[in-house]
Structures are given as structure tokens and as C-alpha cells.
Amino acid sequence: MATVLSDRDIQTKLSGLPDWSLSGKTITCTRTFKDFVAAVAFVNQLVEPAESAGHHPDLEISYNRVVISLSTHDAGGLTEKDFALAQVISNLG
Ligand SMILES: C[C@H](O)[C@H](O)[C@H]1CNC2=NC(N)=NC(=O)C2=N1
């Protein structure tokens, strides 16, 4: 199982991901699109990287806004897997 990161490691990794913030034992990112169709298209882009990583974001769609939350449920906190997937998500259009 992946190892939970220390608070210090989490802060270091977050400093390289300006669009993500810490919320308890998760990191979250909010993206806004022109409409619901564009928001859903973005969510569909997450399927392949999530399946490839065997790691899946929690997603909340509100019309044109998508809130993405990452945490490693198995480990009970944030691990390298969350930051690796966050970086991939940040690189998407
Ligand atoms: C067996 C399977 O790989 C695990 O249940 C994976 C699936 N996707 C997951 N996704 C997330 N975000 N956290 C997990 O702990 C997790 N576990």
C-alpha cells in the first residue's frame, strides 16, 4: 500500500501545484468551463489517466464547475499517487 506523506512533503508538493489546495486529508482543484457540456467533456478526459493509474478522483459537477478531490482512501491520507494524478489533471486542457 502507498505510504501517507508527511505534512512537510505535502506542503512541498502543493507548492508545485498552484491550482490545488489542501482540505483535510484531500487535495482539491476547482475548474470552471463555458457550460455543462464542456465540464462533462473535461471529466471524460479524466477517465483514461485514472484507470491507467488505478487511482480515481472524487468529482462534483455543478453546471459548468468541476471540483476534483484526491485522497488515497486505502492509505487514509495523501500519497504520491494523489500528487502524480493531480499533476496529470493540471496538464489537461
Ligand atoms: C483495488 C484498487 O486499486 C483500489 O481500490 C484503488 C482504486 N482507486 C482508488 N482511488 C483513490 N482515490 N483512492 C484509493 O485508495 C483507490 N484505491
UniProtKB/TrEMBL annotation:
HAMAP family recorded: Pterin_4_alpha
EC class name: lyase
Catalytic function, reaction form: (4aS,6R)-4a-hydroxy-L-erythro-5,6,7,8-tetrahydrobiopterin = (6R)-L-erythro-6,7-dihydrobiopterin + H2O
Annotated signal sequence range: none
Organism: Phormidium tenue NIES-30
GO biological process terms on file: tetrahydrobiopterin biosynthetic process
Alphabetical list of InterPro entries matching this protein: PCD_sf (IPR036428), Pterin_deHydtase (IPR001533)
Family classification: Belongs to the pterin-4-alpha-carbinolamine dehydratase family.
Keywords: Lyase
Protein name, UniProt field: Putative pterin-4-alpha-carbinolamine dehydratase
Enzyme Commission number(s): 4.2.1.96
Keyword Lyase: yes
UniProt KW Endoplasmic reticulum keyword: no
CDD domains: PCD_DCoH
MF annotations from Gene Ontology: 4-alpha-hydroxytetrahydrobiopterin dehydratase activity
